[in-house]
């Protein structure tokens, strides 16, 4: 009775029979083929040439699957046991389709290489455990085939994604990263860093109470983050503009907005007013220059122009907060 509770939920590979190993290999080839097709579907609109590469990989997996099924029919008949990768301990897992949909192209390529490497090791271990000559030969051949899939991907890449196409696709991926993460995040950081300067420093000089100033900064930062996040996510679903997932853009904008404000609010946890204010001013200085650096690095804005715009704007807002606080 107790063995039912203490029995491991997954079996070690060493416990599988040769029929179960073949069944596991068949289901794994099916999974990998479907994943490559999912990659192809996800990439087809933006990267049509790379999509053809993954379609070619899926065809190769389908061929391997048929070879394994043919051997299973010869040795064990038409009934294939139901055993999948999630039933076997330490067997590499695969991402579901809904996580593949928005995967960057470089990540998809890296995942494909990792899949082939894992399949190679599986077939090597399975072949070493097989006592049947035909099964051992097929598993060994598949281990070699999986190892050579990297060269297959390279051959397919040379056919479908020559250097000029690959460069164009990489530029498209970089542009998508900028539109989905960098641009909303930068807008949020600028808004959070600059727009909260006035209320935080006004509260600081009006009350000279560090705790009350911190509460004002915390509420202003969190409120601005929520507002910017919802605004970014709601105003554009990304389908027509091509700016990507509204949820990702909203999170990037909201989180960076909140962080931008919290940067110079947190120093007011220091009880001494002038020490806290000096620390906040130093952080503001670095925040503004960081924004200028990001604009120059990712948005290709000339550094001096970015620095002039950000530092001048932030300085004016800071001065307004100090003047209002001292009024």
For CATH, the homologous superfamily of the largest domain is named as: Ferritin, core subunit, four-helix bundle
| SS content category | mainly alpha
What is the count of DSSP helices, taking H or I runs of 4+ residues? 13
Number of strands: 0
Poorly predicted ranges: 1-7
Q: Gap between N and C termini, in Å?
A: 79 Å
| Average pLDDT score | 78
Which CATH architecture of the largest domain?
Answer: Up-down Bundle
Question: What's the SSE blueprint?
Answer:
Blueprint: H1 3-6, H2 18-43, H3 48-76, H4 97-100, H5 105-129, H6 133-147, H7 149-160, H8 163-195, H9 197-207, H10 210-235, H11 246-265, H12 273-298, H13 303-326
Characterization of this structure:
The protein contains 13 helices and no strands. It has 327 residues and is an all-alpha fold. The protein folds into two domains: 3-161, Ferritin (Up-down Bundle); 174-326, no CATH class. It has helices at residues 3-6, 18-43, 48-76, 97-100, 105-129, 133-147, 149-160, 163-195, 197-207, 210-235, 246-265, 273-298, 303-326. Residues 1-7 have low confidence and may be disordered. The chain is elongated.
């Amino acid at each position: 009775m107790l063995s039912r509770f203490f029995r491991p939920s997954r079996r070690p590979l060493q416990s599988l029979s040769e029929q179960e190993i073949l069944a596991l290999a068949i289901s794994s080839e099916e999974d990998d083929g479907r994943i490559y097709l999912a990659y192809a579907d996800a990439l087809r609109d933006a990267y049509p040439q790379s999509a053809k590469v993954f379609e070619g990989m899926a065809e190769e997996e389908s061929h391997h699957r048929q070879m394994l099924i043919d051997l299973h029919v010869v040795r064990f008949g038409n009934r294939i046991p139901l055993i999948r990768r999630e039933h076997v301990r330490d067997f590499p897992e695969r991402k579901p389709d809904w996580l593949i949909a928005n995967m960057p192209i470089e990540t998809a390529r890296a995942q494909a290489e990792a899949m082939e490497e894992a399949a190679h090791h599986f077939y090597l271990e399975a072949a070493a455990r097989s006592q049947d000559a035909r099964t051992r030969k097929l598993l060994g051949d598949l281990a070699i085939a999986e190892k050579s899939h990297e060269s297959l991907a390279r051959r397919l890449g040379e056919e479908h994604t020559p250097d000029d196409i690959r460069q164009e696709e990489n530029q498209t991926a970089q542009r998508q990263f900028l539109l989905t993460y960098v641009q909303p995040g930068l807008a949020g950081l600028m808004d959070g860093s600059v727009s909260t300067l006035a209320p935080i420093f006004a509260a600081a000089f009006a009350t000279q109470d560090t705790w009350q100033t911190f509460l004002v900064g915390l509420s202003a930062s969190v409120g601005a983050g929520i507002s910017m996040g919802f605004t970014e996510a709601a105003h554009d679903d990304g389908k027509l503009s091509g700016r990507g997932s509204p949820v990702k853009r909203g999170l990037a904008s909201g989180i960076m907005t909140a962080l931008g404000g919290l940067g110079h609010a947190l120093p007011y946890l220091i009880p001494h007013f002038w020490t806290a204010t000096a620390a906040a001013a130093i952080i503001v200085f670095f925040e503004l220059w960081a924004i200028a650096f990001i604009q120059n690095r990712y948005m290709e804005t000339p550094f001096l122009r970015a620095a002039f715009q950000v530092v001048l704007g932030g300085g004016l807002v800071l001065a307004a907060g100090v003047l209002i606080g001292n009024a």
